[in-house]
């Protein structure tokens, strides 16, 4: 028996091990540190494992916070930042009384907030009033660490864990910069002074909503979004009818406006502050071209802010594409600390693909039964696989909503708004919800199949455990996807045993799968093949890929894999690969 089993028995009693869904325990880092939860108020996670109670977690954080204060360190960890201004930075932070020790995003009282109040900072009375109306009193750690440096006019690359207030972190100081510029109230097409780039439409809308809150009393400043999903002319009309100095945009649609909206490029010459939210995503290959074009369309003399929960080394290397050489890297995640939240329990499960629907159903039923306020996000690899999973789970009478790029924008917005407001819902999503989206009180995040990379795993998981709350994560992998665990081995992910699925559940699931339309299955198969074909590890060996795709097709109840249009096979570089049928 693993040592973790003994610990659990001692602290939580036998019921944990007697559950139908026991986990093979790898003792989480928190337990290895000898910090076990008390029996009282203990909860279980998706694998039936006991999770630390809120009080225990807070106590643990307090202890760690105290330790961190003893080893007071700098917020600026960038080599690039080691310049003549470095002393200033620490001085500023001290003056503000910010918790600059980095590490867990935990403040003095065990919450995710710092001990600095907004009214202790040099921000305008108008902003302060809006911040109060929004219900924010104390700054989060990343806000406290970045605000003084941004107000100094420096370019900033900031890294802080998910759900710790990065949006206000860049919006508030940017609005402060704008509020010092002369603005005419009724100007029809004012210069755009603040441009915020986001990788998804949902995130862009959310950032604009947060900006509107902060602009409540800045009556001469307006905000607009350009995100696509509607006709370009509609956005052009809306921009004309509602003058704005702040624009929140997705890269593709912004480029469209640059190329097709008269006078738009002139308006962009007024940009004083450029923000790349989810900067690592915007700077990766998928967006790089558009972003470079956008950067070349705004003035060189500007302030640039890059924010994300993940900043891989490659992004540091290329950040000069966007920022001045003397930019500051503000990292509120202390070296050696995990990039995920300790109050979010993370599990993984490895099972053959043909069991995945049954396992999902089993995990969801248990979670729904255990938590009346459940709010779950299931991430799938592609839009069409998302659709398929949503359809199967809907057939099983779970309360399912579906969101992905193949849905109309109005449907996406409707589902997104509903999920934000509600409880008792399961959102099946592609990566359109992976980054930045702030759905409150998500209780469980399930990732089915490998995420695109380590960063995406962290961002998806980050939809739960926001603002210091607890949450659970489950990564469901096929045996041949297990290699992915090597990329997240520094995170506290424990293995959960595969639940025993009884035959009645199996039949129920099979019937549900059978009821799903053939078209959905064909599309899912094709999308699945495309996704794993472009995966460096799995896509390398084409005959193995075809064999694995066949397993996936069988999991959808198809005895023979669907045929794929010849031109699509060619685009995927899979023409003439034995085992694939073309149509
Ligand atoms: N100072 C504050 N006090 C209380 N709540 C805050 C404060 N600042 C921001 N928030 C709230 O915290 C939540 C998370 O903020 P936000 O979405 O900006 O996080 P994030 O760090 O950008 O997350 P992600 O990495 O997922 O993008 C939001 O609901 C926001 O309104």
Automatic annotation (TrEMBL):
Record Gene3D superfamilies: P-loop containing nucleotide triphosphate hydrolases
Xref: Pfam families: DEAD, Helicase_C
UniProt short sequence motif Q motif, positions renumbered to this chain: 116-144
PROSITE patterns: DEAD_ATP_HELICASE, HELICASE_ATP_BIND_1, HELICASE_CTER, Q_MOTIF
Alphabetical list of InterPro entries matching this protein: DEAD/DEAH_box_helicase_dom (IPR011545), Helicase_ATP-bd (IPR014001), Helicase_C-like (IPR001650), P-loop_NTPase (IPR027417), RNA-helicase_DEAD-box_CS (IPR000629), RNA_helicase_DEAD_Q_motif (IPR014014)
Enzyme class: hydrolase
EC number: 3.6.4.13
Domain DEAD-box RNA helicase Q: 116-144
Helicase C-terminal domain mapped to chain residues: 359-513
Reaction catalyzed: ATP + H2O = ADP + phosphate + H(+)
Annotated keywords: ATP-binding, Helicase, Hydrolase, Nucleotide-binding, RNA-binding
Sequence similarity: Belongs to the DEAD box helicase family.
Entry's free-text remark on domains: The Q motif is unique to and characteristic of the DEAD box family of RNA helicases and controls ATP binding and hydrolysis.
Protein name: ATP-dependent RNA helicase
Species name: Digitaria exilis
């Amino acid at each position: 028996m693993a040592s973790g089993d003994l610990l659990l028995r001692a602290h939580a009693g036998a019921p944990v091990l007697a559950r139908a869904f026991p986990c093979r325990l790898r003792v989480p880092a928190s337990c290895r540190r000898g910090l076990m939860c008390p029996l009282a108020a203990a909860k279980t996670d998706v694998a039936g494992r006991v999770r630390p109670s809120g009080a225990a977690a807070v106590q643990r954080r307090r202890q760690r916070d105290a330790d961190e204060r003893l080893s007071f360190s700098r917020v600026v960890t960038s080599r690039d930042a080691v310049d003549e201004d470095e002393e200033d930075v620490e001085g500023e932070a001290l003056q503000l009384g910010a918790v600059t020790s980095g590490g867990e995003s935990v403040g003095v009282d065990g919450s995710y907030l710092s001990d600095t109040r907004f009214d202790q900072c040099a921000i305008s009375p108008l902003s302060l009033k809006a911040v109060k109306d929004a219900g924010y009193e104390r700054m989060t750690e990343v806000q406290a660490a970045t605000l003084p440096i941004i107000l100094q006019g420096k370019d900033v690359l900031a890294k802080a864990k998910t759900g710790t207030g990065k949006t206000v972190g860049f919006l508030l100081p940017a609005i402060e910069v704008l509020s010092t510029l002369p603005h005419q109230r009724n100007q029809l097409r004012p210069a755009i002074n603040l441009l915020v780039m986001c990788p998804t439409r949902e995130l862009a809308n959310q950032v604009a909503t947060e900006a509107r809150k902060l602009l409540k009393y800045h009556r001469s400043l307006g905000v607009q979004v350009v995100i696509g999903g509607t006709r370009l002319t509609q956005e052009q009309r809306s921009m004309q009818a509602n003058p704005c100095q702040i624009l929140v945009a997705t890269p593709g649609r912004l480029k469209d406006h640059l190329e097709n909206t008269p006078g738009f490029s002139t308006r962009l010459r007024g940009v004083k502050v450029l923000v790349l939210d989810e900067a690592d995503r915007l700077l990766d290959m998928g967006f790089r071209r558009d972003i470079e074009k956008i950067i070349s369309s705004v003035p060189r003399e500007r302030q640039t802010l890059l924010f994300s929960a993940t900043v891989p080394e490659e992004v540091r290397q290329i950040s000069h594409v966007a920022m001045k050489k003397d930019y500051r890297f503000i990292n509120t995640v202390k070296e050696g600390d995990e990039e995920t939240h300790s109050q979010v329990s993370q599990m993984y499960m490895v099972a053959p693909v043909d069991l995945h629907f049954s396992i999902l159903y089993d995990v969801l039923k248990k979670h729904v039964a255990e938590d009346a306020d459940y709010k779950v996000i299931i991430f799938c690899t592609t839009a069409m696989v998302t659709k398929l999973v949503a359809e199967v789970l809907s057939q099983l009478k779970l309360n399912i909503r579906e969101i992905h790029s193949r849905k109309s924008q109005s449907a996406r917005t409707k589902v997104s708004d509903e999920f934000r407001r509600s409880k008792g819902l399961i959102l099946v999503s592609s990566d359109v919800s992976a980054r930045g989206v702030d759905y409150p009180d998500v209780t469980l995040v399930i990732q089915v199949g490998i995420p695109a990379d380590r960063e995406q795993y962290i961002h998806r998981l980050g939809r739960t455990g926001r603002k210091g709350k607890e949450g659970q994560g489950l990564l469901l992998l096929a045996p041949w996807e297990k290699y992915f665990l090597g990329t997240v081995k520094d995170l506290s992910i424990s293995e959960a045993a595969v639940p025993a699925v009884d035959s009645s559940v199996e039949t129920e699931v099979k019937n549900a799968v059978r009821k799903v339309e053939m078209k959905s299955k064909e599309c899912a198969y094709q999308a699945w093949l495309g996704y794993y074909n472009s995966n460096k590890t799995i896509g390398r060996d084409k005959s193995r890929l075809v064999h694995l795709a066949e397993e996936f097709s069988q999991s959808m109840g198809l005895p023979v894999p669907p045929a794929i249009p010849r031109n699509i096979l060619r685009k995927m570089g899979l023409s003439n690969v034995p085992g694939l049928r073309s149509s």
